[in-house]
Amino acid sequence: MSKIISIVSGKGGVGKTTSVINIGSALSKFGYDTIIIDGNVDTPDLGLHLGMPNQGTNLQDVLTDEKSVYETVYLHPNGVKVVPAGINMWSLMNLSKNNLKKIKGLKNYCNAILLDCPPGINDEAENCIKVSDEVIVVTNPNILSTTDALKAVVMARKHKKKVLGVLINRKNGKDYEMSDANISEFLGIPLLGVVPEDEKVMKSLNERKTVVDAYPSSKASIGFKKIAAKIMGQEYKDIEEGLWYKFKKLLKLN
Ligand SMILES: Nc1ncnc2c1ncn2[C@@H]1O[C@H](COP(=O)(O)OP(=O)(O)OP(=O)(O)O)[C@@H](O)[C@H]1O
Ligand SMILES: [Mg+2]
Fold this sequence. Notes:
By secondary structure, the chain is α/β, with parallel strands linked by helices. About 35% of the residues lie in helices and about 15% in strands.
């Protein structure tokens, strides 16, 4: 049976959805049957990130008791499975967010589930944490998002969820940034991994692709793949960093 891992932050815009789509796609490339779920029901955008803005059955239909969760799983061309949330405003009516626990039914059918959480420390974020088994906290290396991240850690602890660690996203290595060690110490949780600031992330978003698909050897891709491997307790060994890959790239063979 798989675990549900929720990706939380506190502060908005730090890179939760980007992390979910890329770690999920990386896990799927590594051979793990992976489902990513848009738990950001009020302002969903996971499907938009992936070029699949959903008009069909989606998570809201589960929350309104109209569909079973099994009817909401879509297969992305890269192999990851996606449960989108509807982008239609009307679909926000009559939702029972308590029904989110129905996603637990998917645990028997895959190796990993990643739940993209809404920003903020609110009921919606708390519901996501409640249905999950483990939590990853995303922050940027600055005091504002790290302070908000602490609130997410507190909420996870309140519900006795295991916090896998902090994902530091958009690090650019400038000396005014908080250090990895400071962030980890401030939050009282281990460092899960670091993803650098990388314009390839924006480029891939513009192409409606994940960065691990569109630019597999980019700095951000390598960061996300290392984190995906670590979540599964594996060491990251990527042929894409090897000489043969670089040679093929030079010759534009891939
Ligand atoms: N490592 C990175 N390098 C450059 N840009 C990034 C990186 N990570 C994320 N971004 C960009 O930051 C923006 C916000 O990312 P994203 O939507 O994933 O954040 P979020 O935490 O899910 O936001 P929200 O709280 O609103 O749901 C996007 O435009 C994304 O492309
Ligand atoms: Mg998001």
